[in-house]
Design a protein that fits this description.
- With 387 residues, this protein is of the alpha/beta class.
- The chain folds into 2 domains: 38 residues; 335 residues, Glycosidases (TIM Barrel, Alpha-Beta Barrel), CATH 3.20.20.80.
- Helices cover 38% and strands 13% of the residues.
- The chain has 11 helices and 11 strands.
- An 8-stranded parallel beta barrel has the order 1-4-5-6-7-8-9-10, surrounded by 4 helices. A two-stranded antiparallel ribbon has the order 2-3.
- Helix 8 links the parallel strand 7 and strand 8.
- Helix 9 packs across helix 10 and helix 10 packs parallel to helix 11.
- The longest helix is centred in the first third of the chain and has 36 residues.
- The chain is globular and about 90 Å long.
- The protein binds beta-D-mannopyranose.
């Protein structure tokens, strides 16, 4: 009898334990699923890390601005592809928080148009991700109609849309982009996908690229954007991508939105602005334009960013604090951008971040030390959600 009772008690305890563990774990799981479902991104199926990145960008923009640099790890003004080097780090002691990379020539070359090897680029992206950094990808794709460069302004969007003569060619290029993005893993084995911000067909409000507004219709630009997102997200099943729309300078919200593909197709509202940052009298326009983009992002519950900027060769010693930062941080609206990124340190006559010994180096240190700017060394964990 006693033996039987023991058995019964034992069984009851096991059942109670198993059900408790079951309910606890399912409720935890459901709670987690629910948290991620509430984060709205273009891709509903975006990975946890991608959604966490988006949520954390929304959070961080309220207190600080991440600093970014194009091709930071690939080369500097006086060096090329040297391990762990970065002009930004050599001047201020930290890597940037955001890294821009360029995909032009992907699919028909081992390196991009600026001679950066795609294999090395993948390694640098992985390295920076491990340190907590953020990757954004631009794409100066060659003109698909003429075979010329991105700056061959023969309008070509119609040709690559479905039913266009170059549509299959365009899909091949997107296949290469998808292969590159899907190969970005946190580890060689069992790694998860590294989230990236994809920023194609940028500065379309200008006339210098084949996808530029004067060379195509807004309807075709929108159709191209939507096709591109749907192809990468739904056909290629990429779920580690946030999408950034980044016109060049415009004067009104109407102009900004003229080619806007819609809230379901854009995560980040960007602005590329070189025009306003090189002259004192134009800097208030940077503030004005950023206010406009931040207001639009607020209306849409999205993130705003200064996706490209810079003063070539930084000829003014105090440019970083007295010109760039001042005109962003002193405005309560404009300062709510998530990041600002300067362009590449390509040549001795074409660079946008200082290098050791440069005349703006000391001021860049001040810029780095300002509580508003965030570099990699004071970057919170961007790929995890804090409960
Ligand atoms: C431009 C210049 C070019 C470069 C291109 C793509 O602004 O820096 O030299 O090839 O970007 O990176």
């Amino acid at each position: 009898m006693k033996k039987n009772m023991k058995k019964v008690y034992g069984k009851i305890t096991t059942i109670v334990l198993v059900t408790t563990v079951f309910f606890l774990s399912t409720s935890f799981l459901f709670k987690e699923i629910d948290i991620y479902q509430q984060i709205k991104t273009v891709d509903k199926k975006a990975t946890k890390e991608t959604k966490a990145l988006y949520q954390n960008l929304k959070k961080i923009k309220e207190t600080g601005i991440l600093f970014g640099h194009q091709d930071d790890l690939a080369y500097g003004v006086h060096w090329k592809a040297e391990k762990k080097r970065s002009d930004v780090k050599e001047v201020c002691g930290s890597y940037p928080a955001v890294y821009g990379w360029e995909l032009a020539w992907l699919g028909n070359s081992t390196h991009n148009l600026d001679s950066v090897s795609f294999e090395k680029m993948k390694r640098w992206i992985r390295e920076s991700y491990k340190r907590g950094g953020i990757t954004t990808l631009s794409w100066h794709m060659n003109n698909p109609k003429t075979g010329g460069s991105a700056w061959d302004t023969t309008g070509a969007i119609k040709d690559i849309l479905p039913n266009g003569s170059k549509h299959e060619f365009y899909k091949k290029r997107l296949d290469a982009v998808a292969e590159f993005i899907s190969s970005l893993k946190s580890r060689w084995l069992f790694g998860h996908s590294i989230p990236v911000v994809f920023r194609p067909f940028h500065e379309h409000t200008g006339g210098w690229f084949w996808w530029g507004k004067p060379n195509n219709s807004p309807e075709d630009y929108i159709a191209l954007w939507r096709f591109t997102v749907e192809y990468l997200r739904d056909t290629k099943q990429l779920h580690n991508v946030l999408y950034a729309y980044s016109p060049d300078i415009v004067d009104s919200k109407e102009q900004y939105l003229e080619c806007y593909p819609g809230d379901d197709y854009v995560d980040i509202l960007g602005l590329d602005d070189y025009h306003d940052v090189s002259a004192k009298e134009r800097l208030p326009d940077l503030t004005k334009r950023l206010r406009m983009v931040v207001e639009l992002a607020d209306e849409k519950d999205k993130v705003a960013a200064l996706t490209e900027t810079g003063y070539e060769r930084i000829p003014q010693e105090n440019w970083w604090t007295d010109m760039l930062l001042k005109h962003i941080k002193e405005d309560p609206v404009a300062s709510r951008i998530a990041w600002m990124m300067v362009w590449r340190n390509g040549r001795t006559d074409h660079y946008y971040a200082p290098y050791e010994g440069h005349s703006s180096a000391d001021n860049f240190i001040k810029f780095k030390e300002d509580p508003v700017t965030i570099f990699e060394d004071d970057l919170p964990k961007m790929y995890r959600l804090k409960e």
